[in-house]
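Researcher: Sequence recovery benchmark, item below. Answer with residues only.
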């Protein structure tokens, strides 16, 4: 790992924190709707699987240590042991999957492929981990937890569109960013 990798990793950890400055909207099941889930989508699509995953792991470490880096100025181990903890723990995996798919398809990317990659990693994978976590920590059935998270989908689709736009913009402006590391 070179100094450029470290800078990218730090940048995307900080970006995920900055996305938390937008006020959260807390849903009835105790999980806040925030812009921070875009951090894993952007990290994977721009800096790749390895660096994106590391950036989000560092971000989670900051949360666990107690830094107030989550939306609403929250942090600490208690947050990770709450209904939203599973979604947050899924972010490094989501960045890794999105980054891997981008890396393997960089020369043949289309908007449709990008949307599929980001939806698969940033929504499907995150929900697959987050929904059971909500069920356990909110003492709900899996069905109730899944239905409760349906409120996230419209916002997540908007995030996917924004991430595609930002990723394409950054790739055009900074072609020297090498996604493969």
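Model:
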């Amino acid at each position: 790992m070179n100094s450029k990798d470290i800078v990218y990793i730090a940048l995307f950890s900080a970006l995920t924190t900055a996305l938390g400055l937008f006020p959260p909207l807390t849903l009835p099941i105790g999980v806040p709707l925030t812009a921070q889930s875009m951090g894993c989508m952007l990290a994977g699509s721009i800096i790749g699987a390895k660096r994106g995953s590391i950036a989000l792991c560092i971000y989670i470490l900051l949360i666990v240590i107690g830094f107030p880096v989550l939306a609403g100025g929250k942090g600490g181990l208690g947050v990770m042991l709450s209904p939203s903890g599973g979604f947050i723990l899924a972010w490094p995996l989501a960045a890794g999957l999105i980054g891997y798919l981008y890396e393997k398809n960089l020369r043949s990317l289309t908007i449709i492929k990008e949307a599929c990659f980001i939806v698969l990693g940033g929504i499907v994978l995150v929900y697959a981990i987050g929904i059971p976590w909500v069920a356990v920590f909110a003492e709900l059935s899996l069905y109730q937890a899944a239905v409760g998270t349906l409120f996230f989908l419209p916002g997540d689709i908007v995030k996917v569109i924004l991430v595609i736009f930002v990723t394409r913009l950054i790739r055009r402006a900074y072609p020297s960013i090498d996604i493969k590391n």
